Every structure is written in structure tokens, then in C-alpha cells.
Amino acid sequence: MKAFSDLTEREILAIAIAGEEEDGRIYMSFAEKLKERYPASAKVFEDMAEEENGHRAMLLETYRQRFGEHLPPIRREDVKGFLKRRPVWLTQNLSLETMRKEAENMEFQAARFYAAAAERATDVGVRKLLGDLAMIEKGHEQRAGELTERHLTETMRGEEEETRHRMFVLQYIQPGLAGLMDGSVSTLAPLFAAAFATHSNWETFLVGMAASIGAGISMGFAEALSDDGSLTGRGSPWLRGGICGLMTTLGGVGHTLPYLVPQSWPNAFWVATGIAGAIVFVELWIIAWVRARYMDTPFLQAVFQIVLGGAIVLAAGVLIGGA
Questions:
Q1: pLDDT, mean of each 10-residue run, the chain (323 residues)
Q2: Does 182 lie in the same domain as 287?
Q3: pTM (2 decimals)?
Q4: Which residues, other chains included, contact 12 with Cβ-Cβ below 8 Å and sequence gap of 6+?
């Protein structure tokens, strides 16, 4: 790799031209990904791409005047220590906030490059152009704000906020809620069956942990493999799977931990079972509240569905364990 200090003026201009072209393509990629969900923000990135193309044209004209038509095959990746673009644009279902932050990083890096390149330029015209571009890139944060104000009207902001809320529910709340429901409810039967069959806190704890971790792994993989998010917009499958698996495990562990009460305590089994039952009650009400808050389910209906279902599963475990 070549050191930045060893670059010629010709190579600096060639890198700048290639960089502006690449940044313009990245912004257009962002715009395409946002077009359906956030059309106003997509237009902001389209305008930013047009500005990058304008910078490229300015650089290319200066290069032609100084060095002719042939561009040397050198890119940012060929320069030692050069700040490189992260390939986040290759990722499916990028969030709007991630794209905006990446754009800020890109403009910051470009401004630093042009400032350093201007110091190395010996030609007055090239030095002025690079210095001007450094100032333009520094001002792009303000420019992005101006473009946002132009395209994001109050109506469009409201629509994009609704879309952002819907994406949050699809990507985080839905898999987390599915995991919490499964972990809280599905582990009740094996946990309380083991409890009433053995009356041993430690053995019950082991059964509960095994059921919770096993359910978490199963639910995590099931969620990750069910949908890659490319059509539904539900985000990264492994992120959703991780959230679902973690919440499944937590849902089961919550009412398993009370069985760590030492067997030497007076009425240790009933103390642990009472605490576990209280935790189950709280878990089921939390699930009902989340369903009512984010899934547009009437609260009383959510309570009836979740609490009644959990009570039935718990009773099944108790009956099986006591048989």
C-alpha cells in the first residue's frame, strides 16, 4: 500500500474523483433502500448524491486540464492509513438513523481528506479546488439539514415517524414479545411438574434452567430462519433471532431462580414455589401490557388471553407433577 505522503498531485486528484463517485453511489443506494418506507428522506439522499456528482465533475475537469484523460487505477483502499468506507450499504434493512450517521461519517472523512490533500497540492488551481471542497464537505452537515427541511414537511415527518414506529415494533417488539411469551408460558409446565414431582428446589431449578435455555436456543433459531427481512422489512434475521432467544430464556429463568432457595430453609419448597408463582403473575401481566401497548390489542382481551393461557399451562404442570 502507498503512503499518503508519497502520493502525487495526479494520484490525489484521481483518488478524489473515485471517492466522490463512490460516495454518490452509496447515497443513491441509501435512497433506493428508503424510497418505499421513507420517500422524503430518500429524496434528501438523492440530492446529496447529485452534489457528490457535481464535485466529481469539478475534480474531473481540473484533472483533464492538468493531466489529460487517463486516470491512474488508484483508490482509497490502496493508500496506507486512509479512512475507508464501511460496507454498511451492502446490509439489508438498514435503519434510517444508521444511514444518517454513516453519511455524517462520510462527510467528516471527506473533509479531512480534502484538507490534507490541499496542503500537499503545489498547483494553485488544484490547491484552491481541494480547499474549497474541504469547506463544502465541512458544511454538508448544515446542507443536509437544509435538504431535510426542504423535503421533510410536517406531514412527511408524521408519516415517517409512523413508519419508524412500525419498523421498531416489527424488528424489536414483535420478536421480543414472542420470545417472552414462549419462555414465560411454555416453561411453566415442566418447571412446576418437576417441582411437585420431586419437592426438591435444586432439581426443579435444573429442570427450569434446561427448559429456559433450550427454549431460548430453539426460538432464536426459529425466528432467525423464518424470515430474512428482505421483503417484510423486519430487519436482520440474526438480530431478531438474538432478541427472541434472549427474551425466551429470560422469560423462563425469571420464575426458575426462586428455586435457588436452599433446601435447608423452613418450608423451602413452598417459599420458592410461592415466589415463583408471584413472578409468573407479574410476567403474564407485563406481556399483556406490552401486547396492549404495541400490538394494538385491547388490554382486557390481552389479559384474558395471556393470563388465562398461562394459568392453564401452570395448572397442567402442577397436576402432572402431583400425579
A1: 82 88 88 80 85 90 89 81 61 68 77 84 85 78 54 55 66 82 84 89 92 90 73 68 90 90 88 90 85 76 76 83 75
A2: yes
A3: 0.52
A4: 117, 120, 121, 130
